[in-house]
Structure formats: C-alpha cells, structure tokens
UniProtKB/TrEMBL annotation:
Domain of life: Bacteria
SUPFAM superfamilies xref list: Inosine monophosphate dehydrogenase (IMPDH)
GO molecular function term, any single one: nucleotide binding
Lineage, top ranks: Bacteria, Bacillati, Actinomycetota, Actinomycetes, Kitasatosporales
UniProt-listed GO biological process terms: response to toxic substance
Keyword Methyltransferase: no
Signal peptide: none
Species of the source: Streptomyces marianii
Family classification: Belongs to the nitronate monooxygenase family. NMO class I subfamily.
Cofactors that this protein relies on: FMN
UniProt-recorded name of the protein: Probable nitronate monooxygenase
Transmembrane segments: none
Assigned keywords, A-Z: Detoxification, Flavoprotein, FMN, Monooxygenase, Nucleotide-binding, Oxidoreductase
Length: 357
C-alpha cells in the first residue's frame, strides 16, 4: 500500500463497513487493536448516531480506523412499480403484524451532515459507497488530514474516483456480500458483474491508485492471492460478521454456516438495489418482482425485516453474505486477524518458493 495507507495498519487486512449494525465500535476496535483496519458503517444512521459511534470507538482504541458513507441517490424509481411491490408485500405485513414503511423516507442518508461532522472532527480514513464524491468534498477531507477511498466495481468507476482526487479505491468483485457498490444502478447490468481477480487486473491497468480488494475473501491464502494480483490490501466483511464482537443479529450469524442456507444470490427484494445474501423464502418469493428502487424498497421493507428478526424468523431477514460464507469462523475478531495474517504470510512464502526470483 502507499505509505500513508500502510501507516494505518500493521497487516493488509481491512474489516468491511457493514451497514445495519454488524460493524459496531466493538468490532472495529478489536480489528484495529489486532493490527488490521477497523471500520464503522455510517449508512442508515443519523449524523449524530455516527458521531456517537466514533466517540465510542475512540474510547476503545487509539489505533486508526475508517468511516464509510453512503452517497445520496438520484430519484429515478418508478413510483407505480414501487406501489405494486407494496401491494405484493401486504401479506408479509399482515403475517408479521407490522406496517410497511414509507418509501419516501429520504434519499440522502444524511450525507452532508455526516460530511460536516467528519470535516470538523476528522477521522483517519473515510470511504464512499454507491457513488463518487465531488472533488471539492474530497479536497475538504484531505485538508482535514483524512484519507479517502471510493468503492468501485468497474474500471470506469475507478477513473471517476481518480478524477475526484481519491487516495485509494476499494475494488469490489461480484462475489462480495451485501450491496454492490456500483455508482449507477442500472437494471440492465443485473446479470453482469466482474469477478474480483479479473477486476483487479483491469483496474490496475486503468489507474495507478492503491487498491483495497473486496469480495468473497475468507482465508489468508485468498488475501495473498489478491495481493499477488496487484491489490495493496484485502477487505473482509462476511469473515468478521460472525465474530462475537460483531453487532449482527444472532440469527444472521448462525445462518452463515447453517445447512438451511447453502447458497447466495444477488437480489433487489429487500432494498431495491442488487445485494448478495443467503437465499431464503423472502428472497425467493419476492426477488423476481422487486423493482429497481433504492432506497424506496429499503424503507418499505425495513419494518418487516426487524419484525422477522424479533420473531426469530431468518426466512424474511436480509442475510447478507459473500460467496465464501461457508468458510466463516466463529472466532474473536483479534484472533481472526492474527490467524489471517499468519495464513497470508505462509501463502506468500509458499508462492515465493514456487516462483523464485
């Protein structure tokens, strides 16, 4: 990694910012304390909620960490299609005895207020998902001493990040769990997507920025593989989701290795944006009909997902997971970082022996 990013962590291991509660201060602190780079997810939180978590994290560790922001989304959803989907979900609302949410609850996720806090009280690193910040926004964070990372899924998005002045890019392959961080949500691309190793190669030829690789990484040997492919660090989400420090729901953690959930798919069922999760009843029944409408569908289904979790029913929860979910290890986050670092070093040594200079 570039020297500035290298200074943030001892190992090239980044804990992914998982919105929805998993990436809590306890998890981020444990990862950073162990030599990785912990992350808080500001998505779906208020600006004050984000600030309170930053304060809590600073009380748990003096090590560097990152904060992830969701970019505001353009208004392009078909209101009629959202209404049809609302009608389709009426039976779910009756079953879980909870009203459907208001699809017009907000599009910007408090972006400007969060940026203002991060400029006034800087953190070491800020990353962006669902789009690219303006050069002015990046410049203001840089003046505050903050490094910036933009999530990208294509070489074209990587070029946009470079033009905006980003310090690094998080290259997300199609294997990744949770939402695809595309800058533009185009339903025509729902069957597309590029695998991580191929994407690293393409982006390395397009831009010179440091690369944090994300997507299906669960073992140190895979970290070594993306490093050999040209990445500077690896970002892992699903691998940390099952750790005891993670704030993910217990049902979500159990589902990672449950024989009831043996595969993942990309779906719009829960949020209106493509996201990879474990295939469950809700995804199977509603995924084929969910419109391209984010965050409208997210707001619409939010109460349903919470009610399902409260009822102990994972079949209507958004069980976000990467393709490597079966390799999840229920270990304390600090111990997992140490094991991953050792596995990465061993794999790197083995590769060097096979390919001497």
């Amino acid at each position: 990694m570039s020297s500035a990013l290298t200074d943030l962590c001892r190992y090239p291991i980044v804990q992914a910012p998982m919105a929805g509660g998993a990436s809590c201060p306890e998890l981020a602190a444990a990862v950073s304390e162990a030599g990785g780079l912990g992350f808080l997810a500001a998505g779906y939180k208020t600006a004050d909620g984000m600030y309170q978590e930053i304060k809590q994290l600073r009380g748990l560790t003096a090590r560097p960490f990152g904060v992830n922001l969701f970019m505001p989304q353009p208004a392009h959803a078909d209101a009629a299609a959202v209404d049809v989907y609302r009608q389709q979900l009426a039976g779910e609302a009756d079953w879980y005895e909870t009203p459907l949410g208001d699809p017009d609850s907000g599009r910007d996720d408090g972006y400007e207020a969060k940026l203002a806090i991060l400029r006034d009280d800087p953190v070491p690193l800020v990353s962006f998902t669902f789009g690219c910040p303006t050069p002015a926004a990046v410049a203001r964070l840089k003046r505050a001493g903050t490094l910036t990372v933009v999530t990208v899924t294509t070489p074209e998005e990587a070029l946009a990040a470079q033009n905006a002045g980003a310090d690094a890019i998080c290259v997300q392959g199609i294997e990744a769990g949770g939402h695809q961080g595309t800058h533009r949500d185009d339903p025509a691309n729902d069957c597309g997507g590029i695998g991580l190793l191929a994407l690293i190669g393409q982006i390395r030829e397009a831009v010179p920025l440091p690369v944090i690789a994300a997507g299906g990484i669960m073992r140190g040997s895979q970290i070594a593989a993306v490093l050999a492919a040209g990445a500077d660090a690896a970002q892992l989400g699903t691998a940390f989701l099952v750790c005891p420090e993670s704030g993910a729901n217990a049902l979500h953690k159990q589902a990672m290795t449950s024989p009831l959930f043996n595969r993942t798919e990309l779906t719009r069922a829960f949020s209106g944006r493509p996201a990879r999760g474990l295939v469950n009843r809700f995804m199977s029944e509603h995924g084929p009909y969910a419109p391209a409408a984010y965050p409208e569908v997210h707001h619409l289904t939010s109460g349903l997902r919470k009610a399902a979790a409260k009822a102990g029913d994972p079949q209507a929860m958004a069980l976000w997971a990467g393709q490597g979910h079966r390799l999840a290890r229920d270990l304390p986050a600090g111990r997992l970082v140490g094991i991953l670092a050792a596995e990465t070093a061993a794999a790197g040594s083995a590769l060097a022996l096979r390919n001497p200079a």
